[in-house]
Amino acid sequence: MKVSLLGFAAIPDGQVVDDPHGGHDLNSPVSSLATPTPKPLAVHGSYEGVWLSRYQYHSSGRGESFAGQHFVVVLQHGDRLTVRSLPGSAASSLSMDLTVDGAVVTGTWVEQTDPTGYYRGARYHGAIQLLVEPTGRRMAGKWVGFGKDMDVNTGPWELTFRDASTSKATLDQYNTSPE
């Protein structure tokens, strides 16, 4: 197959071709669309602190739905939120990397399950999108991720604010099971 059939210019060996457009169509209909302006960060102030993370999932192997809960620490750097579970709050560990755009929080999650539990230390990951309530004290939305049978699963996820402090004493207080 010739490269030119894929939309590339045919270039003889050893010859350099100067493409003034850098290989891009500068007259694309997309380039005429308006560029969105960023919305203000954390309308409710900082999201830093301790939050309760709770999500629901269906276990196809057990035929039941379950809830996963962790106390998590949220750190904020501009429009980026880094979320990490407190190690004593659950047998699994959870992390999220999120971006705030007004009242919309979008990102990815990773959970390393309990090595001695039903999933035997399996690592699951996916995407998440949350909406921040007007109070700024609760985020609720949906997660999406893969299942063991090559299927795509989804379910509700919420973060509920608990404490603005990230001091050692506060983290020690929440380093326990939320149940």
Descriptive keywords:
single chain; 8 strands; Porin; 179 residues; mainly beta; globular; eight-stranded antiparallel beta barrel
General description of the model:
- With 179 residues, this protein is mainly beta.
- The chain has a domain at 49-170: Porin (Beta Barrel), CATH 2.40.160.
- Helix content is 4%, strand content 45%.
- The protein is built from 1 helix and 8 strands.
- It has an 8-stranded antiparallel beta barrel.
- The radius of gyration is 22 Å and the shape is globular.
- The termini are far apart.
Average of per-residue pLDDT values: 84
Helix content: under 10%
Low-confidence stretches: 28-43
CATH topology of the domain at 49-170: Porin
Compute the gyration radius: what is it? 22 Å
Number of helices: 1
Compressed to H and E, one letter per element, the order equals: EEEEEEEEH
Q: Shape, please?
A: globular
Structural class by helix and strand composition: mainly beta
Ends apart, CA distance between termini: 62 Å
- Largest β-sheet summary: 8 strands, antiparallel, barrel
Task: Assign the CATH architecture of the domain at 49-170.
Answer: Beta Barrel
**CATH top level assignment of the domain at 49-170:** Mainly Beta
| Number of strand segments | 8
Brief summary:
It is built from 1 helix and 8 strands, in the order ββββββββα. It has one helix at 168-174, and strands spanning 49-59, 64-77, 80-85, 93-101, 104-112, 123-132, 138-146, 152-163. The protein is globular.
